[in-house]
Amino acid sequence: MKAFRRFAIHGDTRATGKEMHGKNWSKLCKDCGVIDGKSITLTDVDIVFSKVKKKSARNITYDEFKTALAELARKKYKDKTGEEAEAEVFKLIEGKAPVIAGVTDTSKFTGSHKERFDPTGRGKGKAGREDIVDTSGYVSGYKHRGTKLKESTKE
């Protein structure tokens, strides 16, 4: 299943996509609408994850993932048979990917982060990250710009 792989590698550069961490399991359930806040909560999702994984493991495999979804499906759709409930939950997850819109939408940025991007959302580079100081003044680091000597010879 593509959704399993997409969520398994989300946020982890070393992930192979064959096993999913608990954080990504929770994100999958939230982003795909499995958690509804009534029949299934975040706590239920965490309990099911702990139940299906091996005792010493921190991740679940694809087979354990299917088992966990089946368990959540029975809880979410109590009025349907086991297979119908599983099919409904698989429909919710099918083809989905992690939601990252809030991270990449620069119009929602505030404060100094807003200054790092132009109106199109493209980064300004170093100019957006640093205050470039004009060192042409008379005091600190004066570099003889428009020196007094040249000004006095004009008179």
Can you summarize this structure?
With 155 residues, the protein is mainly alpha-helical. The chain has 8 helices and 2 strands; from the N terminus they run αβααβααααα.
Any overview of this molecule?
- With 155 residues, the chain is mainly α.
- The protein folds into 2 domains: 2-93, EF-hand (Recoverin, domain 1, Orthogonal Bundle), CATH 1.10.238; 111-153, no CATH class.
- It contains 8 helices and 2 strands, in the order αβααβααααα.
- The protein has helices at residues 2-9, 22-31, 42-52, 62-76, 82-93, 101-104, 126-129, 148-153; strands spanning 19-21, 59-61.
- It has a two-stranded antiparallel ribbon with strand order 1-2.
- α2 (22-31) packs across α3 (42-52).
- The protein is elongated and about 90 Å long.
- The model has no long low-confidence stretch (mean pLDDT 79).
- This is Tubulin polymerization promoting protein.
- InterPro entries: EF-hand-dom_pair, TPP/p25.
- One of its GO terms (cellular component) is microtubule.
- Its main location: cytoplasm.
- It comes from Sparus aurata.
Features of the shown structure:
elongated, mainly alpha, two-stranded antiparallel sheet
Spatial ordering of strands, largest sheet: 1-2
* CATH level 3 topology of the largest domain: Recoverin, domain 1
Cα distance spanning the termini? 83 Å
* Poorly predicted runs: none
Looking at CATH, the homologous superfamily of the largest domain is EF-hand
Query: Total number of helical segments?
Result: 8
- Please indicate the count of domains: 2
Order of SSEs: HEHHEHHHHH
The amount of beta strand, in percent, is: under 5%
Rg calc: 28 Å
- Oligomeric form of this entry? single chain
CATH architecture of the largest domain: Orthogonal Bundle
Helix content: 40-55%
Describe the global form.
elongated
Keywords: Cytoplasm
Pfam family, one: p25-alpha
Biased composition (Basic and acidic residues): 112-132
Region (Disordered): 110-155
